[in-house]
Amino acid sequence: MSDIPLKILSVDDEPDLSLLIKQMFRKEIKNGEFEFYFASNGAEALEVLAAKKDINIVLADINMPVMNGLTLLKHIREQNNPLIRVIMVSAYGDMKNIRIAMNNGAFDFVTKPIDFSDLKATVIKAGEEINYLQRKIEQSKRLESLEADIEAGALIQAALLPKIKGKLDCCPNVNIFTHYDPAKEVSGDFYDVFPLDDHKLGFLIADVSGKGIPAAAFMLICHTAIRVYSREDLSPAGILQKTNDFVNIDNRESMFVTAFFALLNTKTGELSYAFAGHNKPYIITGKEVRQVDGNQNIALGIVENFDYRQESVMLNDGDKLFLFTDGITEPVNENGEEFGEERLTGILKRNIESNVIDTGEKIIRSIEDFTHGLPQFDDITLIGFEYTANTD
User: Fold this and answer.
1) pLDDT tens column, 112-138
2) How far is 146 from 342, CA to CA, in rounded Å?
3) What is the C-alpha to C-alpha distance for residues 275 and 249, in angstroms, rounded to an integer?
4) Residue 147, domain member (yes or no)
5) How confident is the model at residue 314, as a pLDDT?
6) Beta-carbon count within 10 A of 307 CB
7) Which one-letter DSSP state was computed for residue 373?
8) How far is residue 18's CA from residue 38's CA, in Å, rounded to a whole number?
9) Listed residues 139, 169, 185: the one ending a domain
10) Are residues 220 and 302 both part of a single domain?
């Protein structure tokens, strides 16, 4: 939860929304965790923000009279206040306006009809970032160089990715390990682990071409698109295909993303997945360590209307998968040698009987020992999960 009370401005022309928000968040309001203000359009919201300088989160509906949410976002961004986050509220599937909002600095979005548990999680996530920035500002009113600015951006980026070592409440038969160690410069690795219903769990790992702020922005667009299309009950191949078509729109920088996206049916053990030019994960099944089979397809953002092929595999009790980016296999030692996939598979083979968390930790320690503290030039991203067959 936030270190300070979150002061939230809800901007929406629906008159009943303010009553609903007060009802749904009555506990947080009573405990002093959330403090709400309300406005019916963008122009009125600017007046409230001018009067209440300590508002730090704005929930802005995109479609409103007088001044819409996108115009309000533009005005807020022009104020250059680093301690305010704008969460857009849009109609389900309004990808065009969501893209515009994210490109213009929106922190996140929720769709109507509003899922208030999702809204609460998004608000808390925004509050955590605001608190982080507040602490940085208190330490130093001005960042001394562009390098410091980029480093802060990398830390924020890392803070937004899920950190899991154990089991999610929704899926007690799946043990999960995640590790993300960003390089000093903001870059484009991203991953996600998220439930889609009570027996379906999504796993995403991806790597954006390039470095710096452009790569981070493109990462955010791709990540958002995959999460949105995942809600449409599509297959992994369908989700990647729609994402690819979406990111190809106006891709002036010719950026691309390699990705692997999988859906695990936690009841049956079926893992359906599709590649977008990404490294093949390793599966440990029985006493065997091997790469996951499948056509690697083409990275997202290169060719429009590409037909992504989908694969599937049935996981047995105790099977483990490890997903990774190039940062796992490409670190070099003082002799210029790469860590490589041979060393990675060697660790997996020596730890066939270990649980997924212990094995993941051994992989990371082995990379650290191999490089002996040499500078890190790429993000190190690893996801592992272990499936336990349901006995119900």
Assistant:
1) 888 888 889 989 888 888 888 777 766
2) 38
3) 21
4) no
5) 96
6) 8
7) T
8) 7
9) 139
10) yes
